[in-house]
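look at this stuff:

>
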Amino acid sequence: MGYKYYEIILNWLIEPLKKPLFYTSPIGGFEAVFGVTVMAGFLVSLPIFIYQAIKFVEPVSTKTKLGGKKIFLYLLISLFLATTGILVSYYIVFPASLSFLNRFGSNQLESLISTKDYFSFVSKYLLGFAVLFQLPLVIYLASLFTPITPKLLWLKFKYVFALSFLIAAILTPTPDLVNQTIMATPIIALYLLTILILYIKKLIVKEY
C-alpha cells in the first residue's frame, strides 16, 4: 500500500521545501522510495500495534490504576497527541524553520539538497514532535501513581523552561537559536497545558 501511494506521500513530504530533491548515488532513488514506503507502512499498521499492545498488557492492567478499559483510551489519546505533534510540526514549525534557513541563500549560494539529507532533516522534526506531544499524557499518568500537583509543576517550571531548550538543541538539526526556540516553545506550552489539565482534574475531584 505504501509503495502504491508513495508518490503522493513523497509530494506531501517535500511540499514545504518548494524545490525538487536530488540523489548522488545509483541507489539514491531506491532508498527514497523504500524510506517513504516503510514510513507509510508503519503509520498504517500503527493501530494494529496498539491493539496488540492492549491485548498484551490487558491481563495485568486490570489490577492497576490504569484499568483494562482505560488503557485503550490512553493509547488512543497517545495516538491523537502523536498525530497532532506531526501536523503541528509539518504545517507550522517545519515551514518556519525552512523559511529561516533559506534566508542564508543567495545568488552565489544555491542549495542542492539530497533525498537522504532532507528525509533525515524532516524526520527529526516529525518524530521529535510526535514524542514531545506525549508530555501531557506522561505527566498525567505519572500523577495516578505519585502525588503531582499543579502547584508542584508550576514551581518546577523554570527548570522545564531551561530543559526545553536543551532538548530542542539536541533534536533540532541546526544549532541556531531561532530553530531551538521554535521547537522549545511547544514543549513549554504543553507543560503549561498539563498544569491546566491537572488543575481542572483537581477541581472536578473536589466537586465529587
